[in-house]
Amino acid sequence: MSSYKIASIPGDGIGPEVTNAAVEVVEKLAKTLGTFQINFTHIPWGTEYYKKNGQYVSDNALDELRQFDAAIFGAVGAPDVPDHISLWGLLLAIRGPLQLYANVRPVRTFPGTRCPLNTATKGIDWMLVRENSEGEYAGQGGRSHIGQEWEVATEVAIFTRVAITRIIRFAFETAQSRPKKHLTVVSKSNSMRNGMVLWDEIATSVSKEFPDVAWDKMLVDAMTVRMVWQPESIDTIVGTNLHMDILSDLAAALAGSIGIAPSSNLDPTRKNPSVFEPVHGSAFDITGKGVANPVGAFWSAAEMLTWIGEKDASDKLMSCIENVCAAGKVTRDLGGQCDTKEVVEAVCAEIEKLKN
């Protein structure tokens, strides 16, 4: 029987609520199926850790994470700490150094939930791939003459051939694995005439390795319109760090709710552990109220199970989640009346049925 060590990093806001829910559900699944063992270790990084220690993670954070097969992450951010400090202190301090360069965000309309787009008559089923290591979030730039009228701030987007090539190839491989075998490459090369032109050129070059994948290019602003008016023309999308950060949130909202959206921060080389997290953020407005939607964390955990080699368990978990949604046992963001605990209990009850 395979055994896995998983780091649990709940973080801030509703992060602990949904992460604890996901851990409970996955442990229930492992116990019920009896086909694998999974052991979660809590790591207390986040804003409270920052306030006590002056930093968001431990000094040996990367080596600590490398002891695990994967990690599940909740959220980062608090009202009393500037966002750029919390994000760079925790999540970006992990993604870049561990080279988790492929951020994968599946988006689809769940049974029993409503897609707000009347143009999506069959609901939405997209796969979004985000470059996760450089681009607009490279952290290059600076400020000078601070506080003066002539203050200057620069934010330098970094695009390298190696990083663009690997994410474009990963996206083509992802599209190749899906029934439609279609990829849309998003850029903004009409106005960003250096990095984005390189992005387009590499996409054209790599596409020749995948003759069975149909593909097209689209400017990011035009892509937002296409997502609303022609959702059925889309399957797999790849774009830069900033572009896909924005488009993936839009995609989740169009599919029904950002509360169900998962993400995977992957190192496709598998030299480092990958990190799985819901995309909804820390949601200060509902923190501690017990009403957070745990489905995004559940789905992220299912993606983790697939990544570590437990595809059958992942499929069973997703089936249980879908059955619960189809029965209307959902939180308010999906039109239901359930709280977090009730959704967890409903999913655990579905998992219990797997014994039969």
UniProtKB/TrEMBL annotation:
Q: What InterPro entries does the annotation carry?
A: ICDH/IPMDH, IsoPropMal-DH-like_dom, TTC_DH
Q: Where is the signal peptide?
A: none
- Domain Isopropylmalate dehydrogenase-like: from-to ranges: 5-347
Which Pfam family, any one, appears in the UniProt record? Answer: Iso_dh
Q: Where are the transmembrane segments?
A: none
Q: Which SMART domains match?
A: Iso_dh (SM01329)
Task: List the Gene3D superfamilies hit by this protein, alphabetically.
Answer: Isopropylmalate Dehydrogenase (3.40.718.10)
What Gene Ontology molecular-function terms does this entry list? NAD binding; oxidoreductase activity, acting on the CH-OH group of donors, NAD or NADP as acceptor
- Known NCBIfam families for this protein? TTC
Per the similarity annotation, which family is this?
Answer: Belongs to the isocitrate and isopropylmalate dehydrogenases family.
Question: What is this protein's name?
Answer: Isopropylmalate dehydrogenase-like domain-containing protein
> Which organism encodes this protein?
Penicillium angulare
